[in-house]
Amino acid sequence: MGNIGIWQLLIVVLIVVLLFGTKKLRGMGSDLGSAVKGFKKAMGDDDKNGEKDQQDADFKQASLSEKKDESEIITPKEQEKNKDNDRV
């Protein structure tokens, strides 16, 4: 009673083709295929990223002493602003 035969499947396919049309079914199939392909690519990218160092961004990591040295550097624009603020 629960078995679906080949004839029942053919009737269902025929009804679906009549309702949607072959162009729409082809478009839906290609959209579904590209979605699955994109999903697989994203999963593969995550696997490749998992093997890396787990860095969030591509930048040079500096120690605290290097950061302190960089913060002490005053650009010429900042010097002019400081002079203007001192005059007021």
UniProtKB/TrEMBL annotation:
Its main location: membrane. The keyword Cell membrane applies. Keywords: Cell membrane, Membrane, Protein transport, Translocation, Transmembrane, Transmembrane helix, Transport. The chain crosses the membrane at residues 6-22. InterPro entries: TatA/B/E, TatA/E. Residues 40-88 are annotated as: Disordered. It is found in: Cell membrane. It comes from the Bacteria. Signal peptide: none annotated. Pfam families: TatA_B_E. It is a single-pass membrane protein. Residues 42-88 have a biased composition (Basic and acidic residues). The Tat system comprises two distinct complexes: a TatABC complex, containing multiple copies of TatA, TatB and TatC subunits, and a separate TatA complex, containing only TatA subunits. Substrates initially bind to the TatABC complex, which probably triggers association of the separate TatA complex to form the active translocon. Part of the twin-arginine translocation (Tat) system that transports large folded proteins containing a characteristic twin-arginine motif in their signal peptide across membranes. TatA could form the protein-conducting channel of the Tat system. Belongs to the TatA/E family. PANTHER family: SEC-INDEPENDENT PROTEIN TRANSLOCASE PROTEIN TATA (PTHR42982). This is Sec-independent protein translocase protein TatA.
